[in-house]
Structures are given as structure tokens and as C-alpha cells.
Design a protein that fits this description.
DNA Polymerase III, Chain A, domain 2; alpha+beta; 3 domains; homodimer; 26 strands; 7 helices
Chain lengths: 366, 366
């Protein structure tokens, strides 16, 4: 292999594939980046066997070939080289020489024959989705994924497709987050569970604009095609919770409140809640005022927030961390909260649309 | 005590005095901020018995008094309150009420009678120094302070005053840093050792402009007066190393080099040096080229930097971390390096002036 390429572009591409490389892997070859040069292109791959990222860039190929180089060291070297052209050469003894202006590095490469191939997900039909739409869906649900390794399925999100509508659903046993969006085409319904780690990486490479990317789903894998980059992930196996059953269809009281005012009051109240280590904040909903209180040995706090109330009074308590996480990512100025009793879930919704739904279990109080 | 003050100003002032409060103290009262309201002013103090910070702000005092409140909690509460007016009230049972708009916190205060007084450093005469001058002196030497707790004196810096000249000197056994500056007046010579932690805090409150601040030195303490803020610190006791003896007066070769080019080459070479865990980079100085090399099991690197050389050739090795730390804070475009042999110290200087001197011991190589 012998190539010449731009330092800046190579450094960007290394950053992309490094996201799929785990430093904790027990297979040393997976700590490497796979490079393959042919037809004026350099292909880069990172792979941790659950998720693989493949990307491509233009380069001058004097001699075609393949190499696997330690990802961390390769990334650091390329990042520190001057913004110029870099030559990368592999000799027959698997020694790599990286040259750039007055710098020359010689490194041992790993055996590229040992590198595991990415699973092939060759689909003829792709879902077409606007990048910003899917990015928002991930951002507004991914925080509610479970971190509990004994429930592997809840460490992913359900992606449900019905005609040209899709939803992402995350549940961790205490709360549920749903966010919906549109697909640009309609190629059939589907229901898969995508690992949270993959969704975080997809979020990272998606842009904020309305450019369209492609997605394919097989029974075992999902494929995301964004510009020159391909993310392939294993799907999580098993039956996801029937989330629709959990969402109450009726309520006894409905509160309309300014999102930021509520967030700031809960954040302040949680300063004392934290001292008590249980994160507990109490709500007293009455007469168009929401009173938030919290107590610990060191003191107590009383916060008042103006609301519009429909229905009865209620006293209910929450883990403040869960409320804060939801209120921080909700983008609408006002939200609606629906309550039934102080032991049944609270629903948080957009005032006008149903594009997101959050459900939160209360903490039982005496 | 009963006061009303601005949220923003109080939050700023808390930030300043918190720097003197250690969360690791064994005296619970020292985890608090001392507040004293009188004559339209609020005084705030933080103190860890080595260093104390006192600052003042305007406020409306309805009732004079003193209180000590848990620093972390008080700081977090004030920071999270809206940008408005805050009322702070202490009752006879030592309960503090903090009110602001729709928020009310009740906290237990600590006994203000228990709070240790700051040592009084009342001097009639003060050294007058431009803030930016002393700030630069600290910034360009403080990295060379020893972190070795068995050598407490080297965890501080020597401040030496001769007429209207002053120098800060840091030594850690492998390197030495000296930076000099002017005093605006001349009130007598002095030689004290100031703890590194204090210098870091003084650096933080000094601005980048040429405003003058005041400094007083007694046999046990130093006092820094910057605007409304007073930093009082214990001095370190003992005889500081006679650093002038260590600095060689002659050299066999002198190298003039661009600071950034040298820094970047050493940073790249150190990527492989780090792999070998000894940080070792080798210099070969010959014919107006400085060749930097480093080896480890994983590979090797060869870097070339153009220099102007006066004198003989030399092969010498350094710990790359020490070189990188010096080159990162040197502000001049070019530096001069003076060498004698490959076992004697290297001197790094400004090309034109003698306002800074760095000395670095080489690593012995075979």
C-alpha cells in the first residue's frame, strides 16, 4: 500500500471510525483501524463486533493494499501532523511509514487478514429520512434508555415503522420516552430494537439539516448510510415491552406550565433533595399554583410556579433527576402534564401536538 | 442579620472566596463561608488556615450580623436563583432564610463565633505592582513547582525583591523557572517563599490589564490586595535553594530555534516516547538541523527542525513532558537554548531579553 492524502480529511475520517473502536476489547486486532486503498479511494473501518463504521475518502493511490494500525496511536499522530499532505506506505514486512514534511514515523502494522469483515447488509430498498428529523428523535429519547445490564433489551430503543410514520421508544422501568417523525417514503412496516450506543453514534454523524439519509433493516442488522459513511449494527433480540399498554388514556387533572420556569424551580429544589440522597421533590398542585418542596437534614425549600389547572388538587412526589432530564430536552415553551392519582404515572406532552410523550412514575409518599 | 443584595454580585463574590475553602478540611466550620453585614456592606471570608480570602460587596443592611453557611450548598443555591434581588435573614436560633422571587430556602447556619479570624497583616507600606506583570510571572513559572510533599519548600516559589525588581523562582529538582518583572515603587528588599496554591489563586483574581495592586510581606505572611479582595497566606518556612549557583554561566553551543516548530516536533515525537513510558526524546544537534528521535516497541519517529547553531555538535536526551511544558508557556516567537555537555543542564532563554530563564536537566543516555 502507498497513498498520499490530506492530513485534515484523514484526521476527520479517523475520528468517525474511532467511535466504533472499543479500548476494552479482548481481540487486539479490533483496537486497530482497517485501511484499504484502491481506485483513488481510502476505505477506513472501525468495528467492535456489535457496531461497525465504514467511511471513505479520496486519496492518491500509488500502490493498492490493506493495513490495520493501532487506532489510538494512528489517530494521535495524524492529528498532530501539520495541515499538509501525508504519505502512508506499507512494506512487505508489515512496517508502516507515515511521512509529512519534516516528520517520519515507522510503526508495526497488524495483520489485515485477521480483521473481521463487517456483516453485509445489502438491501435494494431503503427508508429515506431527513437527517434532522431522526437526530431529534434520538436526542429526545436516548436519555431514557436503561443502564441496567441485566435488562439488555432496555439498553436499546424500539424503532417502530408504520407506513410513513416512525417512532423511537425508550423505557428504563421508571420512565418512558416516545418521539415520532416522518419517513420520506413508504416501503413497509417494521419493528426492531437498536442498541443505545449505536443511536448515540448515528446522532453524532447526522447533521442538523434536512438532507436525506438512508436506512435499511434486516432481521439481524440495521444499516445507516450517511454521505460517505456506513454504520452497521446488530439488533437487540427479544420482545420489547408493549409500551402502549402502559400509557394511561385518562386523567383527573391537567396542568399547563412554562417549561423553563418549572425546570429552574425543580433544579433549585433538587439542591436540597440531593443532600438527602433520594432526589425527592414534592408537588402540591392547587389553585393555579404548583408548590414544589424538598427537605433534608440541612434545610428545606419552597418554590412556587404559576400554572393553568384543569381538574382536582393533587399531592405527588418525583425523583427530581428524571424530571430535570425530560424538561432539559423538551423544546416547546409550554408543556402539559396529566395526572390521575399520586401513585399512577404522570404524562408530559407538547401543548399542541403529540410528537413526543414522556411518562414518569411518581415516588410513593406517606 | 438581614440583608438584600444582587444575585449576580453575590454569586461572583462567593466564587472568589470559595477558592480558599477546602472540602477536605477536618474542621467543619471551615467548610462554611463567613458572612458579616454592617454599614451597607457584606463581607465574605473563606479560609483553610493556610490561605484566607476576604472580599466585600455593597448591599442593603436592615439588621447587622454574622453567619457561617455551608459553602457548597450556599454557592449552588445562589447560582441557581434568578438574576434578581435576594434577601438573606438570620434568626435568633441560627436559621437562615434565603428568599428570591418565588423561591424560599431555609438552612441551618453554623456558629459564627467558632470561625477562626484571619491573621492581621497590617502594613503601612505596600509594594505596588501592575496586575498583568505579576500574573505573567506566576503563569510562566508555576508549572515548575514541585508536587513532592516530602519537599514542602519546593511546593512554593521564591519571591525575591531587589529595589524595584522582583523575580519568582520555581524548582522541582529536574528543572528551574525564573521570571522577572518591575515593581512600581521601591520600599525595601525581601525574600519569601509563597505556597504554589496561593499563587494560583492570586493569578486567578488578577486581571490582564496594567491596573496596580498592592502586596505586603511580613515575616510570616503575605497579603495581596486586589480591588475589594484580600488574599492572606502563610509563608513557607526554610531556606530556599541557592538557585543562582545552579545556573551555568558558560556554554559550548547555542541554538536559536522557532518556538512553535520545536514544540510541535517534540509533541509528535513524544507520542512514541509515551508508549515507552519514559517520555524520552533524543536530540542530535548538527549542521543547523536539530534531529529529534524517539523509539518504543511499537515504532520510532524522526523529526527535523531548522536551527541556527553556534558551536559544536551534541547528542542529548530529555524528558519530553518538561520540554513541552516550557515551550507551551513561552510567548516569544524564537528562543535560545544553551548547552555544555549531554549531562549538564540546558538553558532556555528569550532571544533578546533576560526576563525569563528556564533550566532543564537532561536524561543520561549511553
Amino acid at each position: 500500500m502507498n497513498i498520499v492524502c490530506s492530513q485534515k480529511e484523514l484526521s476527520n475520517k479517523i475520528n468517525i471510525v474511532q467511535k466504533a473502536i472499543s479500548s476494552k476489547t479482548t481481540m487486539p486486532i479490533l483496537k486497530g483501524i482497517y485501511l484499504e486503498a484502491s481506485n483513488g479511494k481510502l476505505k477506513l473501518i472501525g468495528n467492535d463486533l456489535e457496531m461497525g463504521i465504514e467511511t471513505h475518502m479520496d486519496c492518491e493511490v500509488t500502490k493498492e493494499g490493506k493495513a490495520v494500525i493501532d487506532s489510538r496511536l494512528f489517530g494521535e499522530i495524524i492529528k498532530k501532523l501539520p495541515e499538509s499532505f501525508i504519505e502512508i506506505e506499507l512494506d512487505d514486512e508489515n512496517n508502516i511509514t507515515i511521512s509529512c514534511e519534516h516528520s517520519e514515523f515507522k510503526l508495526r502494522a497488524m495483520d489485515s487478514m485477521e480483521y473481521p469483515q463487517l456483516p453485509s447488509v445489502e438491501e435494494n430498498e431503503y427508508y429515506e429520512i431527513e437527517e434532522s428529523v431522526f437526530k431529534d428523535m434520538i436526542k429526545q429519547t436516548v436519555f431514557a434508555i436503561s443502564q441496567d445490564e441485566t435488562k439488555p433489551l432496555l439498553m436499546g430503543e424500539l424503532l417502530e415503522i408504520n407506513d410513513s410514520k416512525m417512532s423511537l421508544v425508550a423505557i428504563d422501568g421508571y420512565r418512558l420516552a416516545i418521539k415520532s417523525g416522518d419517513i420520506k417514503n413508504s416501503i413497509g412496516n417494521n419493528k426492531v430494537v437498536i442498541p443505545g450506543k449505536t443511536l448515540n453514534e448515528v446522532n453524532r454523524i447526522l447533521s442538523l439539516d434536512d438532507k436525506v439519509f438512508k436506512m435499511a433493516l434486516t432481521s439481524k442488522h440495521a444499516l445507516f448510510l450517511v454521505d460517505d459513511t456506513k454504520i452497521i449494527t446488530r439488533l437487540l433480540e427479544g420482545e420489547f415491552l408493549n409500551y402502549k399498554q402502559i400509557i394511561p388514556s385518562e386523567y383527573n387533572l391537567k396542568v399547563k406550565v412554562n417549561t423553563k420556569s418549572l425546570l429552574r424551580s425543580i433544579e433549585r429544589a433538587s439542591l436540597l433533595a440531593k443532600e438527602g440522597k433520594n432526589n425527592l421533590v414534592k408537588f402540591l398542585i392547587k389553585d393555579n399554583v404548583l408548590v414544589i418542596t424538598s427537605n433534608s437534614e440541612i434545610g428545606n425549600v419552597h418554590e412556587e410556579v404559576n400554572i393553568e389547572l384543569e381538574g382536582e388538587d393533587l399531592e405527588i412526589a418525583f425523583n427530581s433527576r428524571y424530571l430535570i432530564e425530560v424538561l432539559k430536552i423538551v423544546e416547546s415553551e409550554e408543556i402539559v402534564m396529566e395526572f390521575s392519582t399520586n401513585v399512577s404515572p404522570c404524562i408530559i406532552k407538547n401543548v399542541e401536538f403529540d410528537d413526543y410523550i414522556y411518562l414518569l412514575l411518581p415516588v410513593r409518599i406517606n
